Amino acid sequence: MTKEALKLSGERIYLRPITMANATTEYVDWLNDAEVTKGLLATGSKATLDSVKEYIAARVDDDNTLMLAIYDGATDKHIGNIKVDNFEHGAQTCELGIMIGDKDYWGIGIGKEVILLVLDHIFNVLDMRKVLLAVYANNPGAIKLYENLGFEEEGVFKEHVRVGDDLVDKLFMSIFKHDFNR
Ligand SMILES: CC(C)(COP(=O)(O)OP(=O)(O)OC[C@H]1O[C@@H](n2cnc3c(N)ncnc32)[C@H](O)[C@@H]1OP(=O)(O)O)[C@@H](O)C(=O)NCCC(=O)NCCS
User: Fold this and answer.
1) How confident is the model over 83-96, as pLDDT tens digits?
2) Which domains are present in the chain?
3) Is the Cβ–Cβ distance between 163 and 38 less than 8 Å?
4) Which of 68, 109, 152, 173 has its CA 20 to 30 Å from the CA of residue 144?
């Protein structure tokens, strides 16, 4: 199946490959909301419609990136994105990153539903063996979510990122196919 034809459907949400149509002012607003981005790799500059378009365009055509837009299944509203990249086909590893930009959707199990859908695809369709992610220590909610899903901490880069006035640890967490499918 081509990347463009992919659709992963859950109970409340569905995921489709991101397109240029997802570059909206709402998406720009998510990136300029410090609450949303405090746990994400900061670019340091203000997001604009052009910067979002540039970011999406670079990933749409990249064979080593699968970036999916997250939609509310009831309203078709775009509420965030999940990105899988850095596929290493020899070692069968890849990396995951998620952003639910619309804060109305936080804390109701959507992140969990999205990651479970994507892990099932990564392990059982794309036949990866291990998925890695990075998370900042100032994001306890995300860490709790990943632990709930079976991710385990592999290592830490101490005081590695600056978030405002703070230097925070960058943690690496992973999950293996055999543990996910168990
Ligand atoms: C982090 C993020 C993906 C969490 O998604 P979410 O949909 O709010 O999380 P869920 O509602 O699915 O929570 C799933 C579990 O994680 C826990 N959790 C999630 N957010 C939490 C928080 N802020 N504090 C404590 N626990 C939290 C919940 O307790 C829940 O556990 P349960 O299943 O035992 O009830 C989302 O808030 C987000 O996208 N934030 C902005 C970008 C970001 O930080 N991304 C992660 C970068 S590593």
Assistant:
1) 999 999 999 999 99
2) 3-128 (3.40.630.30)
3) yes
4) 68
Q: CA-CA distances (angstroms) from residue 47 to 16, 74, 106, 165? A: 23, 29, 22, 20
59-91 pLDDT, tens per residue?
998 999 999 999 999 999 999 999 999 999 999
145 CA distance to ligand 1 middle (Å): 5
Ligand 1 centroid–CA 110 distance in Å is 8
If you take atom 25 of ligand 1, which residue's CA is the nearest one? 141
Centre of ligand 1 from the C-alpha of residue 89, in Å? 29
Q: Do residues 82 and 98 lie in contact, with contact meaning Cβ atoms separated by under 8 Å? A: yes
**Cβ–ligand 1 contact at 103 (below 6 Å):** no
pTM over cut 0.85: yes
Cβ–ligand 1 contact at 96 (below 6 Å): no
* Sign of the Cα pseudo-torsion (112, 115, 121, 127, in order): negative
